[in-house]
Amino acid sequence: MPTATACRATAVAAPPAVLVSAAAAAAFRHQLGTAASTCPGSMPGGYRADVTGAALAALARTFDFDTDVIAVLDHAQFERCAVTVTPRGDGSALLACAGDTSDAFRPARRPPAR
What we know:
Layout: E1 17-21, H1 22-32, E2 36-38, E3 47-49, H2 56-61, H3 67-79, E4 83-87, E5 92-97
Antiparallel strand pairs: 1-5, 2-3, 3-4, 4-5
């Protein structure tokens, strides 16, 4: 006879983040073009980007296919959340998932066909 197993609560992990060079962050912004927008109230040079429609390999190439960067980009695409890039004082930049899913990045719903 099968026995019941106890359910374990699993903690939700924080969205991934990784430090990248300022040069790579600037190249990433250039590659994204109009998909990158300045975050209101962010540090100068910081931006937020929609990566949901971009090819993961093309984005990862900018960072020499760093596996930590790929994890952040993959998470952002899977969760349909924005990626934020925040410059730091030491010459690096923090690449992270925004954690919130912005309605601005969701496709518009079309009315049903009649």
